[in-house]
């Protein structure tokens, strides 16, 4: 299972997506020149001592992110069912692109709410990098499938 390169790609993708829960997507300057840390699950208001502020876009992004991580892990352990693995990878790529879109809308909404300039971090690109890794994993699964079929023909 681990010796297959697509497993490495899928695990790296799941790791990147898991890091999104802990690393900030961006920083924004709010009213009174306070710096807001924008996370995937909400943003911190440094002037208030309350919990992170959450809206519908953060809920959607967090849900999509969680579903994609679960699918990544399931795909790793379905190594004997290559056809199912290919379908799961395709579904993950769609979910990752949706996650990237929702995250972009979420970050764009800060400009409309009266925040100052938003400085993106590398974490904001993680869904796109994970989509590329999942695409590479799918390519490896297709190669394995072709190899197994060619070996079956030889017998």
Structure characteristics:
single chain, 155 residues, alpha+beta, Butyryl-CoA Dehydrogenase, subunit A, domain 3, four-stranded antiparallel sheet, 4 strands, elongated
What do these coordinates show?
The chain has 155 residues and is of the alpha+beta class. The protein has a single domain (5-148), classed as Butyryl-CoA Dehydrogenase, subunit A, domain 3 (Up-down Bundle). Helix content is 63%, strand content 10%. It has 4 helices and 4 strands; from the N terminus they run αβββααβα. It has helices spanning 5-19, 56-77, 82-112, 126-154; strands at 26-29, 35-39, 42-44, 118-120. The protein has a 4-stranded antiparallel β-sheet, covered by helices on one side. A hairpin with a 5-residue loop joins β1 and β2. α1 (5-19) packs antiparallel against α2 and α1 packs antiparallel against α4 (126-154). The longest helix has 31 residues, at 82-112. The chain crosses the membrane at residues 52-77, 89-107, 119-137. InterPro entries: DUF4293. Keywords: Membrane, Transmembrane, Transmembrane helix. This is DUF4293 domain-containing protein.
The CATH class turns out to be Mainly Alpha
Measured on Cα atoms, how large is the radius of gyration?
19 Å
Structural class: alpha+beta
SSE series: HEEEHHEH
CATH topology: Butyryl-CoA Dehydrogenase, subunit A, domain 3
Integer tally of domains: 1
Indicate the overall shape.
Answer: elongated
DSSP, total strands: 4
Keywords: Membrane, Transmembrane, Transmembrane helix
Pfam family, one: DUF4293
Protein name: DUF4293 domain-containing protein
InterPro entries: DUF4293
